[in-house]
Each structure stands twice: as C-alpha cells, then as structure tokens.
Design the sequence.
C-alpha cells in the first residue's frame, strides 16, 4: 500500500502523482455533440476504461465514457448487431473514466457508479441509471466513497449489485451492495486487499462472483483468486493461474457456453499487452488456444451479449513501442474470436 506516497505515475493508466507534479491539461468532451458530428460518427473513438454492459430490454450493448490520454469522454453509444449508434440523452453523467456499469434485473435498468473526472481524479461518487432513453441521477441515503476503476457485478443469488475496490488516492478494499434504492456497506470476515484494475465476474455455474488479480502499486498484480458468496470473501488456491505482475484484464461470463473468461492483461511500462484467453473451470484457470485472437490489450471492456449469445470485446489500450487505442470489436462464440461480428 502506498497511501502516504504520491499516487504512482504509470504508463498503463497515466495516473499522476497527487503531490509535486504539474497537472495535465485535459480535454473534457461533452456528451451531446453538434448534429453534424453525430451524423458522421459511426463508432466510438478509441479509448480505455470505458463503461460497457448489455441492456436486455432493448437487446443492445451500451458504452459510456472512458478516456484516450488526456481526452475524457461523456458520450453514450449503443450497439445492436454490428451497428453502433450515438445518443444525445436529455441528461447524462459528466465526462469520466473508469466508472462501473452493470445491468440490474430488479430495476430493469443499467446502474453506473463513480469514475474519475481524469485518470488521476477527482473521483465521482454518484449513482446513475440508464433506462434505454436517458440517464437519471439517483440520490440514495447512503453511498460509497467516490472512486474509479472499481468493479460492479450483479449477484443473482442475493439479487443485489456488488461493488468492490477501486482507486481514490489509495487502493480501496471495501465491499458494498445496491438493493435498487440504496447502498449498504458490508463487513465480511475476510476480504481481498485494496486494489484496482482487477477482473470481477459473476459465475452463474457456481453462484459466486470470482475476482482475479488487480493493480496495487509496486509489485503490480498479486495474481490471486477470490470468490464472493454474498456474505464473505474466500481466497482460492488454483493450481494454474494467469500469473502475477499482470493486471487490467477484460472479464465476462459467457452464458451460452458456461465459461467465465479473461482476456489480455497489462504487464506495465512498455511491455506489449497480452492476448491470452483464460477460462475459470470452478477449481482452476485454464488457458485456451482459439484459432484466432484479438491483438493484446488492457483496460478494454468485455460483456455478454444475450441477443447474439456471444461475449463482446471492445476498446482498450495496446502498449509496446507505441500506444494505440483500438476501435475494433471482437466476439467470442465459445471456442474462438471473430472480428467485427
């Protein structure tokens, strides 16, 4: 933990030290763009740390925000089939990066929480819902501290949304639940250490949520695996693992194939991002060997599209000798990846 030290400047996240550093000049990108720009835009600009989830009532994917370097987005996009559509809702969250987004079946809305006004803060602690037409800010009686890079999952066993970890000038390790109207802080007997940029995915096969890895300063990722059963965290000891010192995985549960998947990962500094695909079997991690794979990336976003019965991967950051932000979309059919489908 580095709570008493300035936040690390790291190439993977452009996180600036909170003290003694010159501030970045940031470009805040408003949500509603001029009509001409909306008409000519056919897909979201490349970005990392976007919020991405499937919205069942309209059978489409929803993408919000994220950043590309110092450009912070507040745009809302939907994807149906292979077509992206940009929206100009009557209200929307402010420009932000690293906000959590998940579908809440109890309210039949998408729930968005937090996100940073820049990759280095300040940190939002607001709660929003998407109803297919517009965003609405909620004002619950209780709310978690603001943060970015925290994770949201829907826990089908308890019928609540669960929030864990994130960054707020230090690495948070708190667990919260959302019941549709209010946030409640939970006090499990055990808990993973503070972190951000981990993978947190609900495993319908076991009725638990699985957390893997994450970033917590020097030493990068611990490469640990934990399960959440609705009341407590349990550390697991799989014989095989995607490894330590890798973080910012993309994760999703493939309902059609019953696979809990991880893809990619960041190794820090200028090392190329990974392009491996891993599956959680319930007892261990297993690396898969698909015929085709997306280029390696980190800080992208991945979710299950029930309409097409495929996991969809988009956005992210590709690192190496140069840094690029991919705009392509890939899908997983249970055995391999396909581009643009």
Sequence:
């Amino acid at each position: 933990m580095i709570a008493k030290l300035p936040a690390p400047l790291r190439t993977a996240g452009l996180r600036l030290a909170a003290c003694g550093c010159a501030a970045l000049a940031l470009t805040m990108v408003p949500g509603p763009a001029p009509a001409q720009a909306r008409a000519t835009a056919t897909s979201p600009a490349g970005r990392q740390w976007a919020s991405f989830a499937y919205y069942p009532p309209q059978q489409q994917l929803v993408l919000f925000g994220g950043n590309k370097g110092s450009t912070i987005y507040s745009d809302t996009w939907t994807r149906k089939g292979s077509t992206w559509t940009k929206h100009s809702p009557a209200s929307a969250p402010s420009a932000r990066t690293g906000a959590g987004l998940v579908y809440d079946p109890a309210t039949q809305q998408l729930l968005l929480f937090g996100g940073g006004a820049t990759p280095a803060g300040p940190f939002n602690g607001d709660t929003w819902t998407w109803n297919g037409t517009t965003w609405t800010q909620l004002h619950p009686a209780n709310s978690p501290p603001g943060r970015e890079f925290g994770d949201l999952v829907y826990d089908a066993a308890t019928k609540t949304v669960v929030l864990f970890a994130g960054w707020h000038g230090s690495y948070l390790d708190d667990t919260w639940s959302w019941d549709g109207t209010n946030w409640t802080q939970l006090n499990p007997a055990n808990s993973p250490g503070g972190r951000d940029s981990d993978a947190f995915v609900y495993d319908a096969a076991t009725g638990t949520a699985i957390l893997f890895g994450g970033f917590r300063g020097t030493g990068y990722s611990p490469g640990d695996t934990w399960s959440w059963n609705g009341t407590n965290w349990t550390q697991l000891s799989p014989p095989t693992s995607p490894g330590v010192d890798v973080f910012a995985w993309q994760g999703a549960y493939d309902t059609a194939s019953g696979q809990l998947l991880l893809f990619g990962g960041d190794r820090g500094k200028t090392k190329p991002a990974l392009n491996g695909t891993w599956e959680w079997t319930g007892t261990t991690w297993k690396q898969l060997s698909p015929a085709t794979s997306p280029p390696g990336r980190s800080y992208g976003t991945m979710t299950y599209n029930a309409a097409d019965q495929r996991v969809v991967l988009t956005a992210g950051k590709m690192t190496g000798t140069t840094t690029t932000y991919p705009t392509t979309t890939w899908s997983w059919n249970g055995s391999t990846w396909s581009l643009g489908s």
About this structure: Residues 35-40 form the longest helix (6 residues). Residues 27-339 form a domain with the Neuraminidase fold (CATH 2.120.10.80). The longest strand covers residues 71-80.
